[in-house]
Amino acid sequence: MSHxxxxxGGEVDLAVIGAGINGLAIARDAAARGLRVAVVDRxxxxxxxxxxxxxxxxxxxKYLERYDFSLVHESIRERHLLFRTAPHLVRDxxxxxxxxxxxxxxxxxxxxxxLAFDMLSLGRGRGLSRRVPLGEVARRWPGLSRAGLRxxxxxxxxxxxxxxxxxxxxxxxxxxxxxxxxxHTTVTGLIVDDGHVRGLRTEDRRTGRREExxxxxxxxxxxxxxxxxxDGQVKSRRLNGGTKGSHVVVDPFPGAPDTCIFFEAAAxxxxxxxxxxxxxxxxxxxxxSYDGDLDDVTAGDDEIGYLxxxxxxxxxxxxxxxxxxxxxxxxxxxxxxxTGVADNAKISRGHTVLDHAPAYQGLLTVIGGxxxxxxxxxxxxxxxxxxxxxxxxxxCVTRGRPLPGAETSDWPEFARDFLRHSPLDRPRSARLLTxxxxxxxRVLDLAAEEPALAETVDKESGALAAEVVMAVRDEGxxxxxxxxxxxxxxxxxxxxxxxxxxACAAVAVRHLGWDEERARAEVIGYEKELERYRPRALxxxxxxxxTS
Length: 548
Prior knowledge:
The protein contains 16 helices and 18 strands. It is an alpha+beta fold. Helix 1 packs parallel to helix 5 (163-176), helix 11 crosses helix 12 and helix 14 (501-511) runs antiparallel to helix 15. One of its GO terms (molecular function) is glycerol-3-phosphate dehydrogenase (quinone) activity.
């Protein structure tokens, strides 16, 4: 069953396994070049690695340290394109880099790197980096530790506060271009016939319906799960060597900065961040080798302790404890398997497209990839698919194609006009803009057509019932978790949407055909899905139930 029907039939040019940001970008690019495409994911779009990143659109400053100029160039270009094609989702994000006595990367070396970065970014950045005198540091960042502080520099990168919405917009555009996307659908096997991979077999996890999708080319874009897709069916060396990255989310703390701080951890010399995010702070991330269960990745106590200790070190008044952590976020980076590397930071963050021919013709596997360069990765995969198909190259159009939320000739003017005429207060109107872009008008239209949909379902965010309806009708959400965590983003608030979940399920009962039994099951399922985040609110609710 396709939860996002865009045509029927079981035969396509390209079958993509994985609906993370890379799989969706591949579908969009390939469909834009005229290919028939189907995408399959056993969960929701962007529910794996794509929703566990640091939410940064990196220009690639860190990669200069490894002299990976090609990746830096690609990252800067893709960041620049996202500023133009998704201005509602991607924004300029200043970062302060403090230099402390004993750092492995001295101030002069960092300033030299920033100079090189500025040169590579000419015409495609949001401002030049600059040295920040100690006096200015004391005035603008008074909470920052001055013990051993030798200097600082400020540079400009980019942030996508809602990476989940970037995935949604790729989905919307891919569907509009003709791609078929099946979520909550397991790939039960590849169709392998005499040295050819001719598609895949699927099973809908909700209905049990089985289907064969015949494809001329199959793309394994399952991120950290790429080896699992091949296991037992395709002989291959180990391809994924992903490392675990964990973050914690906390409320503002004494001395908290108003810009991102990018600093070197004392414990392991790793560069980490204190990231202002939606009125709170994300601290991260770790970079640990991981050979555990890919379906059960949580931030460990040691990782949480490490992030809090390093933050407390450079912000002495913070005094953060594990009890201050609202929730944690952990995921596995889809990196290439690499042997003999003592420092995980040295593993390439680039991507490669592996053609399994001649042993297995018609099969491509995507190794690596990151949030910033998803579009470039998709372009490379479609180019490779066209070669396998024996077709002439077709021009890629995604470099200049705006995402659906940015389809206006003048984004700043649209935003000003929307804020002037919205019936909502300014904070709620601004939130709609940052989540939906020009599609925010669709939310207001739904609320105007049916007054009950103008009700607020979440006090913290101000989200409307209309957003719940739009998430399912227009944006492919199937479960309450899809609605809360990857469409409306209510689930990324202080209590991870636990207080709002029953109200959102009730909207689905009244307007989307759910019955009361399903609504109760969805709320229980949502609480189960939140366990991997270790949310403080869920632990508190469990404690209340035990004592009542």
